[in-house]
Specification:
Elements lengths: L1 H26 L2 E7 L2 E5 L2 E4 L5 E2 L4 E4 L4 E6 L2 E5 L4 E6 L6 E13 L8 E4 L3 E5 L3 E7 L2 E8 L1 E6 L5 E5 L3 E5 L3 E4 L5 H5 L3 H29 L1
Parallel strand pairs: 9-10
Antiparallel strand pairs: 1-4, 1-6, 2-3, 2-5, 5-8, 6-7, 7-9, 8-9, 9-12, 10-11, 11-14, 12-13, 13-16, 14-15, 16-17
Length: 225
């Protein structure tokens, strides 16, 4: 009788331990929380349908078709892919840093706020790294664009190595030929030089005004004679 009870007790302990291990594993994985339309994941070289509740393994590529949208959750963090998007999620071994490698389309990220940089999005044109914020990255054959809606994002041009910090409400683009620039065409390289661009423009404006003034004085003098 006691042997039977002991066997059941050991079985119960093992079951609880297994549940705990599974819960710990799930807590560190990305789970499909919302899904609409056609969303696929690459499994052993083949694209297969992704469903709500599925766990996305590390380094597994995800693709949405024209009708597809997907939202993945891990604890307080969220990754969303819009239509016609492709990306993969890579967690550094031992934890501590997550990278979304975006190929094309739109990826929105809501990263948990921490004291260290722990989340990033990489595209063929730029890398965006954060300590915790909300931002969106759009990529096509011409380049990538980062739009920040909360916090700040450090964006680095992968071709030139130039880095800038983009704050909430701002957008920045990295194109194949023009490097980093804000919407409207203002090059960030000029902004980074301590306002050199603004100073140069002010000096040029002052010089132009002086030249116009001199011309005006000369014309008035000539007309007076």
């Amino acid at each position: 009788m006691f042997s039977v009870i002991r066997v059941f007790a050991i079985a119960a302990v093992l079951a609880l331990t297994s549940i705990g291990l599974v819960s710990a594993a799930v807590a560190d994985d990305w789970v499909v929380a919302k899904l609409r339309g056609s969303v696929l994941q690459k499994d052993n070289g083949t694209w297969v349908a992704l469903h709500r509740g599925d766990i996305v393994s590390d380094d597994r590529a995800i693709r949405t078709l024209a009708s597809g949208r997907v939202e993945l959750h891990r604890n307080a963090e969220v990754i969303s892919l819009g239509p016609n998007s492709q990306a993969g999620i890579h967690d550094r071994k031992g934890g501590g840093f997550t990278t979304v490698k975006q190929i094309t389309g739109t990826v929105a990220v809501e990263a948990e706020v921490k004291k260290v940089k722990h989340f990033g999005v990489e595209t063929p044109y730029l890398a965006a790294v954060v300590k915790g914020t909300r931002f969106e990255v759009s990529t096509d054959v011409a380049g990538s664009k980062v739009k920040v809606t909360r916090g700040a994002v450090e964006v680095t041009d992968r071709k030139t190595g130039e880095s800038v910090v983009v704050s909430a409400g701002e957008s920045i683009e990295a194109s194949k030929d023009n490097g980093l620039h804000r919407e409207g065409g203002l090059e960030l390289a000029k902004q980074k030089s301590g306002g050199a661009a603004g100073g140069t423009n002010a000096n040029e404006t002052a010089a132009a005004a002086k030249e116009n003034g001199d011309n005006g004085n000369g014309n008035r003098g000539g007309n007076g004679n």
